[in-house]
Structure formats: structure tokens, C-alpha cells
Specification:
178 residues; mainly alpha; two-stranded antiparallel sheet; 6 helices
Length: 178
Amino acid sequence: MLMKTSGRTERNVEAPVSVERPQSGSLLHEAFKIGIGLKGIDGVLELAGGVLLWIEKRVALNRVAKALTQHELSEDPRDFVANHLVQAVRHFGHSEKAFAALYLGLHGVVKIVLVVALWRNRLWAYPAMIAVLLGFIGYQIYRMTLTPTVFLGALTVLDVGIVWLTWMEYRHQKRRRE
């Protein structure tokens, strides 16, 4: 705004307005997008695994397990992981297969739906994703008390990080809409 005072023109400078950095460029937002992207990929893989498990015959599962472990067992016949995988598949009955297929499929569908809703910036999806991930974290911690694994521990830490990022993004989205 220009003002005329005593024959000269001056610019009326107002105090600078504090502008919040755009969320889309922030490091937290980028980490959030990567995290939910990983959960989306995880959801697709779980759904595919559930479908394959549902339609795959037990004999074929035994062949796949043997093919995956044959090299390792030829080098070390006492390999812990390979032997347990072969044994697990051998004793994998119809009810366990149906449960695993349903469990994987439902996990996949839930994650895919929530990730799509988060990408579309649906406010309801943020607390829903947090609740679902907290449920997974609780179950993973329970499983680790029975049979601790590095993979499950790493997955749990990743999920805790995604819960935190989702919470931070949710708070930002709520403030933006107010």
C-alpha cells in the first residue's frame, strides 16, 4: 500500500505475517507419504498372498517350500529357518490354511482401503489407521513374547514410526481445516 506524506511517497510496510511452511514440502510429510506408501505395498502383497494361499493346493505349497529351502538345506541340513519352514508347511492343515488366507486377505484389504483414504486426505482415515496399526503392534508384541524375531521387531518399530507420523499429519490436517 502506498501512502503520500509530506510530498513523498512511502510504502506502508505491515509486520510480516507468520506463514506456516507448506506441509507438502516438509520432511515429516514426505516421511508420512513414504510410510503409508510402504503400508499400501504391504497391503497389496498381503492380499495377493491371501488369495494365492486360498487357491493354492497343499501339495504345491510343499513343493514351493522345498524349492525355497533345498539349496540352504544342502549346505546345512540343520538350518533352523529352512527346517522350520518345511515343517510348518508339511503340518499346514486345511483350517490353518483357510485362517491364514483369510487373515492375510483381510489385513491387505484394510491397509489398502486406509492408504487410499489417506492419499485422498480423508480425515476419518487418520485415526482409523492409527487404531489399526496399534492393533497390529499389540499383536506383534504378543507374538514376539512367544517367538521373538528380528523381522517382527523391525516391523513393530516401523509401525510405531508410522503411527507417530500419521498422528503428526492428522494434527496438521485438523488445524488446516479449522
